Structures are given as C-alpha cells and as structure tokens.
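Weekly sync notes, structure subgroup
Attendees: PM, AL, DS (notes)

Item 1: joint prediction request from the bench team. They want all three components modeled as one assembly rather than separately. Inputs as received:
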Amino acid sequence: MVTLNIDGQDITVDRSYTLLDAVREMGITIPTLCHHPDLSLFGGCRLCLVEGSGMRRPAASCVTPVQEGMVVQSSTPYLERLRKTNVELLLSDHPNDCMLCERAGNCKLQELAYYYGLREHRFEGDRRIYSRKDNNPFLQREMEKCVMCGQCVRICDEIQGVGAIDFAYKGLWTKVTPPFERDLDCEFCGQCVGVCPTGALTGRIWAGKGRQKFREVDTVCSYCGCGCILTLAVKKNQIARIYSRKDTINEGMLCAKGRFAYEFVNSPERLTRPLIRTAPKKDWQLNDSGRYAQVKPERSSTNSSGVFREVSWEEALDHIAFRIKEIKDVHGADAIGGLASARCTNEENYLFQKFMRAAVGTNNVDHCARY
Amino acid sequence: MTNSIEEIKNNDLLLVIGSNTTETHPIIGLQMKKAVRKGAKLIVIDPRRIELVKWSHDWLQLRPGTDVALLNSIMHVIVKQGLIDQSFMDSRTQGFEEFKDTLSRYTPEYAEEITGVPRGKIVETAYLYANAFTPGIYYTMGVTQHTHGTDNVFCIANLALMTGNLGRSSTGVNPLRGQNNVQGATDMGCVPAFYPGYQSVDLSGVREKFEKAWKTGLSARPGLTATEMTEAALQSSLKAMYIKGENPVLSDPDIQHTVKALKNLDLLIVQDIFLTETAELADVVLPAACFAEKEGTFTNTERRVQRVRKAVDPPGEAREDSWIISRLSGKLGYPMHYENMEDVFREAGKVWPALAGITYARIQGRGLQWPCPTRDHPGTQYLFKGGFPKKRAVFTRVEYRPSEELPDLEYPLVLNTGREQFQYHTGTMTRRVKAVNKISPEAYVEVHPEDARKTGVDHGQMVEVSSRRGSIRIRCHISPRPLKGTVFIPFHFKEAAANMLTNTRRDPVAGIPELKVCAVRLEPVKK
Amino acid sequence: MDKKDIVIKVCSGTGSLSAGGKDVLEAFRSLAASTGTQAEFRDRCTAHQVGCRGFCSRDVLVDVIINGEKITYELIKPDMVPRIFEEHILQGDPVDEWMAGEQHREFHAAQTKIVLSHCGEMDPESLDAYLASGGYEAAHQAFVRMTPGEIIEEIKRSALRGRGGAGFPTGLKWEFAGRMRSKEKYVVCNGNESDPGAFADRCIIEGDPHSVIEGMMICARAIGAERGYIYVRDSYALAVKRLGLALRQCREHGFLGSNVFDSGFDLDIRLYPAPGAFICGEATALMKSIEGKRAMPSPRMWRTAEKGLWGRPTVINNVETLANVPRILGRGAEWFAGVGTENSGGTKVFSLTGKVKNTGLVEIPMGVTLREVIYGIGGGMVEDRAFKGIQLGGPTGGCLSEAFLDSRVDYESLALAGTIMGSGGMVVLDETSCIVDTARFFLDITQAESCGKCTPCRLGLRRMFEILQRITNGHGRNGDIELLEDLGSHIRATSLCGFGMTAPNPVLTTIRYFRDEYAVHIKDRKCPALVCKNLLTYSCIQENCTGCGLCKKVCPSDAIRGTRKKSHKIDQDLCVKCGSCFDACKFDAVLRE
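Output from the run, pasted for the record:
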C-alpha cells in the first residue's frame, strides 16, 4: 500500500494504482477521453494532467503510477488552461456537426467544450475531410469526428481479439481504419461503438431515431443463451438503439446480433391480428429430378393472401377452444401436443405447460431443447 | 452450466468440445479469450477449424461422430497413467471399478484409427486435463446432436468425475445453452417427463403435489417429445398441436417429413411474432409479443434468472403469450387468474423450491442463479459444491457406436450443420434485419478444397447437395474450415434449408436428432 | 624499381558512391590488376574501398599511400584515374593540381577521431581488416576475461552518455538492465536516424559496421542479453547491406551464435530494417515497431531497462554510442573520459551543414565551442557573410544566436541554451537565411511526422506550422508570436513523448533569440533575409534602368511596363514575385526588398 496526498487529502491505495485511479477513488472528477479501465494504458488525450511534487512537467495521471509520499494537485489554474487548450485543439479539427450528430447530448467532447465554455477556438487551419465513406451495413464511421482516443483499436484487439482496425498515416492525417482503407469487415460486435467517446462511431440504424430523452429499459437479450443485459433506449414506442451497461454480467460487451439485430421488432411483417385458415394447405412439391425440394420461396403475406382470414381474438380463441374440446372428446387428451418456446419467458412457459397439463390434460409438452 | 460465465476467465485449461463458441456464444467466447490471455491453455475438439482454433494450445480434429472413442481414450490414458483423483471418487462417486474395464480397449492407437486424432495429442490432452487445477469443459450441440448424444454427455461426465474436476469454482462441466431461455423452458417443465423443476410426472407423490397446487387432476402418463410428436402426427395418433414460438419446419431434421406430419394434423395452432414456415401450415395463427414487449424472466445458460422488461407495445392486436394462454385456458374451462407476471413466477417458486428465494425485487439488477431456496440465499454460483444431490455420482459404461448414416459410394460426404455468427436459428428474427442480410445474405456449403477438386465444384458456384431425404441448391464456399470429407451448412436459410437433408434418427434416451452427421452428395448444378 | 607498397583507398560512403566512387574504385582496380602493374608490383599494389571520411562535399576522395606516405586527392572522376596512376604510382610524382588542399587540412585538423577513426581507413566489408586493427579484442575480453560488473564499471567511469540525444549515462542504463532478473533480455541498436541532414549513424554503419556489432556484443554480455536487434532504416540501403554482411561474417567466425568465444554465452543479433518514420527513433515506439505493431510511443511508466521489448529488460543504445564501446574497453575508460568534459566523455559526431565553407561529418571532443567548429573545422561562413544562427540537434533542436558562439558543445551547456544535442545536426544560418522560414521548415517536418497519438503533438504542431505558414505568406496577425509561444510551451508541457516535448524548440528558440525578425514579418510584412517570397516586392530603380526591355521580355505575368530606352515600372498588382526580372537585369536596376 502507498500513501499519497491529493489536493491536500491523504489517501492510501494499492501499489498497482495509477494516479487517476487514486484521484477517482477520492471522488474527484478529472476529464479523460482515452482512458478505459479494462484496456491497456494509452495516455494519448492528455486531459487527465496533474501537477505534483517532483514532477518536472504536468503528468498524465492515467499512466503515472502512485508513489509513496507524492503530493499531487488534480486541478490548478495552470492545469485547467492546459486542458482547455487541448480541448480547443481537438475542436479545431472537429466538424461543427453537433446539430446533426447522433451523439449530441451524449458526447464527451461536446461535454468538455461546454465545461470549458468553448464556442470558438483560437486556431484555424486544415481539418480532416474524408470523402471516402465506409459502406459496412452495421457501423456508421465518421472519422472526421475521431479524437484518436484509440479505445476502439484497443477494445477490438484486446477484448474482442479481432484487430480489425488500427491507426494509419501520420500527423494531422492519422486515422483509425481497417487495413488499406477497405470497408470494415469484421464481427461487427460494435464493442468499438460502445467505447467511442464522440460521434465517430455510431450504429447505422440509430440514424434519425432520436438521441436524447430516451426511456431506458433494461432487459435480457433474446438471442443466444449468454443472457446479456441490454439497455433498450426507447423513444416513441420504438427501440432507438441498444447498448449495455458496464456493471452487467456481460461487462457491457455485446455481439452484432444483440447490439444491432433488433430491427425485426418493428418489422412490417409482424403478425398483428389472429388468422384463421381459409384455403387448403399448400404442398411441398416434387421437383423434376423426382426428389423433394422446397417450393420456390414465396414472400409470405400475412393478411391479403387469401389463405388466411383476419379474425378477432374472441373468434380465434373460441374456434381453438371448440376444436380442442372436440378432438379431446373423440381422441382423448393425449392426441393433443404442445411445443413451448425457448424464446419465451419462464412465466409464459410455466403457464404453457400448466395449460397443457391442467387445462388440456396431457403431458405432451416439449420444446426445442434438443436443437 | 455447473459454473458461471464469470468463472471462465479463471480456468487454467479449457476443453471446448463441439462448440463454435465465438460465433454461437460470442460473449462467452470473450471470456474464453480472456482466460487464454491470462495464460490458460485451450484445447478445441472439433471437426471444423473454428475461430477458437486460432486461440488454442491444441486442436483435436476428430471425425464427426467419434466423440465417444476419443473421450474414452483420453480416460484410458488418465486411468493408465494414474492421473485419477482417487479421494474424490472414494467420497463422491460409485461404480468406477466396474466402469474401468470398458476403457481398456480404447488405447490412443485404437482411438487414432477411429477418430483420426494423432495419439500424441490424445495423450497430451489427457495429461493437461487431469493435471489442471481449474479445468472447465464446454460443449454444445456438437456433442449432443448425435444418435449417441447421451453417450457423449456420459463420457464427459465420467471424465470430470474420475479427475475430480467438478464442484469447484471455475471447474466443472458446462453445456452452453443455445437460446435465450432454453434453460428456463426446461426448468419450467416444458418437457414431457417433468413438471417444473425436473420433478417426474410419473412419481405419484410429485403428481399429487401438483394436483393440489393446480387444483385439478393430472395425467400420469409421460408425454411425447417433440420429435415423437412429429412421428405421432404422421401416424395420425396425434391430432392437434399448439406450437408457440417455434419453427420446427426449419429446425427439425428432414423438412419433408416434418411438413407431412404437420399437414396431417387436424388442428395446428401456431403462436408467433411472424408468419413462419410452420405458421404457413397452421389452421389458426395467433400474433404474439416479442421479447421487448413483455414482462417476465429469462434464465440464461449459467442458471441466472434475469428480468425481462417491457419497452414497447406490441404491434396491432398482438398480445403477450401469457395473455393468450390464460384466455384460452379460461375458454377450456380452466381459468387462470394472475395479477401480473410476478404472480406466475411466485407460483413456480412454490412448486419448485430452487426458485423460492427469487423475487422480482431481488433480480432488479444482476439476477440470481438457481438454486436459490430462500429470500436471503445469494444464489448458487457453481453446482455440486460439497457433494451431489444423489449423494454419489455414478459412472456410466459407454461404448463407441458409429453414427447412423455413414458415407458410402452414393453419398460420400458427411454433412455437419450448425449456426453462423450473424444469423440466428431459423432466421425468423435475424433474416428480417437488413444489415444482417447484407452481411450474410444466403446459405452456403463449406467444402474442403480437396473435396471440391474431386467433385469439380468451384468457389461461389451453385451446387446441389442431396441426401437420401432431399436436395437443395446452395452456393459453394471452398474453405479450409471443414475436415476433409465433410461439408458444413448453416441451417438458418429456408431457401436452402440444411434440414431438407438431415436424418431424423434420434438418440434413444434424449430423443435428440442426429443433426450433426448424415451422408450427402455434392454435385455441380447442371445447366 | 625498388620495392614499393602501394595502397589506394577510395571513399565508398553513400555520398561518394553517388559522386561516382564505384567507378573510380573500379578504374584503380583494373589498373592495379593490369599486366604491367602486376609485373612491376605483384600483389603489393592494392586498391580498396573505405568508409566515408566525412568530407562529402569533396568526394570522390582518394588516398594514395606509397610506403606509408599518404597523398589525398579530392573531387576525383574515373577519367582522372589513369593520370594519377601513371604519374604518381608509377613515376612517384604526385599530381599536385588534384591534391586536397588547405580546406581538407582545415577540416580534419581540429577533429578528434574516435568513432570515425576507422572510416576512411578500413575496408568496411572486410572482417579481416577489422580484425587486423584489433577488432573484436574488446568483445573477447568482455566475454572471456571480464565480469558484467567490471564492464559496466568501466563504461560508467568513461562518462559515456547516450549519443541519441537525451544523453543518459550509458553505464547507468546498463546497470539498471543488468540488475533485472529475467530469462530474456534484449540489446537494441537504434539506427533510425531520420533528421534531415543528419548522417552520422549512417556513416558509422557504412564505414565501420563491425564496431557497432562489437559494441552490442559487449553490452549484451554486460547485461546478460542473448538477443540483439539492430534497428536501421531500410532506406539506408548501403548500411543495411553492409550490416547484413558483417553479421554474416560474425556468425561464420563464431563471434555470434551459441557459445561465443567459448565463453558459454549465446548471442544472436538480428537486423530489423525499419520502416523509417521519424518517430520510430523514439525508444518506446521503436520497441513497438520491433514487436510488429505500429510505431507509437507509449507512456514511460517504467524504464526500458526494466520493461522494454516484449516487457523484458532492454537496453536501447544509439549507433554512435555502441561504436564507442569497443574503443573504451580497448584503450581504457580514463583515456575516453579525458577526451571530453567532466560529465560528458569522448567525442560527438556532428553533421555540419548550412552556410559554412566546409560541410560534412565532423567528430569533435565534448566541450569544444561552437566558434571552433564553425570557424575552425567549417572554415568560416560561405562568402564570409555574417553568422546569424545555428540550428542544433535536428528538427526538434533549437536555434542559437551569435551570442552563443562561445558556448561549449556538451549536454548541459546546450540544454541551458534551450536546445539539445539530438542527433548531432548542425545547420549554420547566415544573413541570407530567414529565421521564420527556417522554423517553418522544421515544423513542417515535425507536424507531418507526429505519430498522431497525443493531442498536443498531433494538432498543436500542425496549428503552429499553419501560423508560421501564414506569417511567411504575409498574413501574420498581431498576437501570432504570443500564440506561438503559448502553443509551443503547451506542447512542451503536455506531449506524451520526447518528440512532442522537443518539437516546438525551433520556434520557441527562434522567437527567444530573433523575436524582431518575427515582428518585422508580421508588422512590416517584410522578410529581411529576402527569403519569404510573398513578402518580397520588386521595383525598378529609375536611375539605373536603361530601358533595355529585357525584364519585360522575361516577365511571365506581363507586370512590367515601359517604352524602350526609358525606365520601366513594375505593376505590383500583377507581379507574381518570381524574381525573373531581378535575375535578368544587367544594370542592377531591379530592387528586391
């Protein structure tokens, strides 16, 4: 353990701590753009500067190990000036796009500009402008807005183990990009989107769905069995975007399906009314070679195909109840079977098997645990 | 899973059998990568060069369906080299002496002949697993979807028991469940032989308990499994089916067979969020709500019960499944009255004590892992701490049996089916997501370069894959991933449904169909 | 004829080769091999290549040594070879008119050659030549007779300091690494010399590759490393070639590989051809580069001697530092320490360029004054113009004014003056050099070479460059000088690595010493040195103009008006400031200001 003094207060922390860890443990806020507790240390944004005894110049606290007896200031007029200048520099190479940016209101750079009262900056000069756009289907990559925090590069390599992106070029034109500036072609887990502090990386399907005043609903992903906790950001009865908090069992990580594949919820193909069959069932036909093959895929139309008739719930349920009773009377309850769903909730499945066993009277109930 | 997801990173050895974890369980895959980064050794047992192979210490590329031989051989080495955990077996297992003999013929040489895995790798794996401090076994459908799926699982259990690698943190046997609530559906008794909480329907004491709880008489006859229902429908002994949120037409083996069976029903009720391939055959289709449109709980693969919350309203007149079921139940003269979903959950907790300690209030945040019998119980991070529920675990004798349908002159290749990263199951949801369809637009068959040369097919070309049950046209991907002599087709795509080809033969115990092995033929499409 | 031993040494550094050195050597060789020569001298007449001797402006340099008596020729072309051969070698009558003169003597007189002592004397591609001069004796001694502690002690006493720029005491660095307990350690030679105009490391590698390898071997033995990397710019084609050859020779002779000198120690040294970005020379970036990652500096939470390459203890030394090591062990630490000052032992090689008469590679003892270098070795200013300033230490160094001419060249004195030793670049400026433009030139390099990792360096340098650009373009604003100072000190205070910390130096020092010149650029829109094109005006001096019309003819923008035999006028609105009229006028009638 190491004891040091931060802003006049003593604190004792583990030797493995950095100054930033110690400062944050004391509840003092210190701005950072590039720091991420689960990733390797970077030290690029130069915002978390501190001054202290025995330091020749301000040190980036995120990459400075604590030392016994250190006396450190986390905020002085000089430090604030340095931080402000760095934010100014970042803004001098940032499109003034907050009006349209998906991240407005939830952007670290915007927040810093607000904090330091920067409407204008002292510098003028070249800004990165990229005409080439990435056409991958999941991620919107607007690299003009990138602040080179490197979190996307690190999370892709160090957590996801994919390494789809890295820095390229030098100086002002440094850019995070897939190899040879090709379109992103990766697992599209969107871990990078989750850590991006600005609007450089966003979900393509987020566009225009709203960006603030979401109703946030925590729920569980409906895909594989990992049970990741999703936060659905809801606006106007629509899922505007999905993300995950850090304090979840999945540690904030999601996969492409969990993060981006929620479009089906609002699909126009959703069933909206009970249907009762009116036409005979179509067959799967024999093909020329005498073997069975599937019928040419035909867009399944819900209501207008003439195969089904839209009915009210009352009619549908009465119809079912009548038919089940009829079959049960003639063939017995065991002539009826039910398949529950691994996609439904525990409660629904409980009710379903209870329904089959208690209301119908059979143990013929199963689900697809086997495939 | 006997262990938890967060324990994976502390494994010092990971034995991944028949699981393409990084694609099918990406977040668990991340934990495995984390473990490897921390210095754990990963051993992959899989006929395909899956992505995890890149992270592995060793890769045992076995021939499909030869798992029993391989696992028995690993155990053979462990027994022969005295790597067993005798004190664990003395206190917690029985039947080892009788069981031991079955292993004697599974020498690494013999296993190499059957499985194609070099004997040295078998020996090394045996040493690594037996000597590891916190080894974890992970498996999915690659192990179970065989006619000897149960045997495979017994083998894994035997392996863990004889080395004492069970019942400790980060040490255990972990089947990874493939769907969000497949664990919960089984827990809740959606299986023919069990009431909620794995309580047998044919034990009279149990039945009486449920009769009392549900205030009605219950059938003592165990029911039919899903695959048996298909057979029964075909033979007209089953007349009606109520299918909720499942798409057996695409997910079950041999589509022709399934379709014929479902069409043979007098009444087919399908309750789903889309007009699935199964719903197209229904007499009545009921519109249901999706996961974001209802309240309730899911139980994930680590037995963690977590809250599902309603975020948006269902479209049109679509309703929560619970609403539909209780209404229907009422119409059948068995009214169900619940204030809310927690009421239902509470009832489940009353009939199954493992859930009794869980309330919605307690799982606001991270959820709880059952068993959690009391309100102050913290949940169970890993199972079998300090003992097994039946006092002593029993070794099961298992002999290698080849798969049911082996390649021959007419159908010379083995077909393996499974998932790919971007699509999910029968594609009811993911195929309605534009971005997913752009990145994964169509079905494909992965062919080993040498098999491609032999059959004269090119990369990107349309080919015809046929089995004794049907044939499909599909795009050919020449890829180094499959084992020579095997092909792989993801089963998400109805246009080229892998399950047109698969075999309906089932495991005699679990009733699981042999989706991982069947014989097929590959030929270029004739113009 | 009596027995004569004749040795012909032809310079073969990159500079010489581009001046035709190879052809000169071939010409000498074929003459030496000709039947006539053979009949007379048998094998006692040999011609071979030698490393660069630093005076590249006079290449190709050729030494003809007859019985130990050396005559140096300069500016030799292949067609001059037969006459030298005929008159000097055969008849013993040196060709006076081609002999190197006063300049050559002046250039070499004040130098002390330690690191460069083999350059210009020895065939760099021959291991035998190196062995003949006592090569690998020091390494042998280090491996067989000395303990690591003794080696480190010797280096510490020599007061050798890192020649890469920062000047960290080499012995101390080795001691840190030697103390670490680790199965693997590394020694890395930093040969990523990227400063424009600096070529000391290149010349050492090209002229004396074995001494670098020997230095690494000694270091490896001292710290207990079994693997070394030589990180050298791939664009140094000749250096890479000769190093590769030297390493091969060493392996063949058992100097590298397993059980070196039967000492029981293994050592392998590999060549790592570097991509050649400026930042690759920064130690942490260099290690990333060797690890196969993008060369970006990492925060220095540990010394590289503790956690370096692949997290193992690593010593990174510059080429020149390592080349000094065998000499120290060979001649003793006291001798070496005696050459320099109290805190900086030995010599330092500088690349002397700019507006001095003699340019080239110079090796001077630590502590010599700048005046001695410029007016002694450099031979004074070109055309005896007034000295204005000197940029030291490459693009990240600082620019010193006349007031510092008598300050000493050692780490402490330079730091005091606001600059660094750096890679040893010395660019001498005279009154025809514009200070603002010079600063702009260096900032142009550094802003483009920033790795982009940290905000102040990536964006701050760019913004400084853009301000300088607007000043030299005549769009400077009030407050620009202060903005430059503010930004410069900001970058210095907040950058991640040494590159960013030093990159504003050219601007900060020029503002410190030449503030008026900036002010003139901004306020008066004038460039006193007449360099900044956009600040120049051309006008006609009526008294001198004869109305010849030549200027009118050469003007590309038809900006000059006037009738023949009458004085002309330059229309300032149309003038594009190309200077054609100024160059064309024979009567000094065009005024440039």
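Discussion: The first helix of chain A runs from residue 19 to 25.
Action: AL to compare against the crosslinking data before next sync.
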